[in-house]
Amino acid sequence: MDDQQAIQRLKNGDISGLEFLVAHHQVKAVRTAYLITRDVGLAEDIVQDSFIRVFHAIRSFDSTRPFEPWFMRSVVNASVKMMQRSTRQVEIGEDADESLLAELAASVASVEELVESIEVQDQIWDAMQKLSPRQRAVIVQRYFLEMSEKEMAEEAGSAVGTVKWMLNAARERLRGLLDAAHRRSER
């Protein structure tokens, strides 16, 4: 069975279609939600709710379109909304970028630096949590889900320029956060 067959089964009232979609997309969806929320339980709840919404909205789903981008957009949007409502969101005024992230990631190339990689991962996670939920979402979509800016724009129903601006703002803020963390660790 593939996604299209599962969707058709689900549209016909056969719950095995939903079972297939859950089995096929749940892990990636939970990882995506977790990268935005950084809470496994919350991520699992968001994905479960997203699958329930799929069950209720599947009749209006356009079967000519791929399921995964549509579903992942739902997961990303639900994760962002949840974090915007959450009091755990941290707001700070610093900025971010991709080059420092790449530089930090490249620093773990050798076996001797493996221990340091844990610190780098912690710095990245900490910096990601200081981004707004929407900024985390665009970083996750671009670098974890490997979506192009065009795909991100299509899924969000916005202009490519808007997505580029949001992604650039998120990278700028991330760069500043990682740079500050890097300076603190050198002390």
Describe the protein's architecture and organization.
This protein folds into two domains: 83 residues, Orthogonal Bundle (Rna Polymerase Sigma Factor, Chain: A); 89 residues, Winged helix-like DNA-binding domain superfamily/Winged helix DNA-binding domain (Arc Repressor Mutant, subunit A, Orthogonal Bundle). By secondary structure, the chain is mostly helical. The protein contains nine helices and no strands. The longest helix has 27 residues.
Low-confidence stretches: 87-96, 107-115
Distance between the termini: 56 Å
Global shape = elongated
Mean pLDDT: 79
Helix run count: 9
Reading off the top of the CATH hierarchy, the class of the largest domain is best stated as Mainly Alpha
Overall tally of domains: 2
Strand content: under 5%
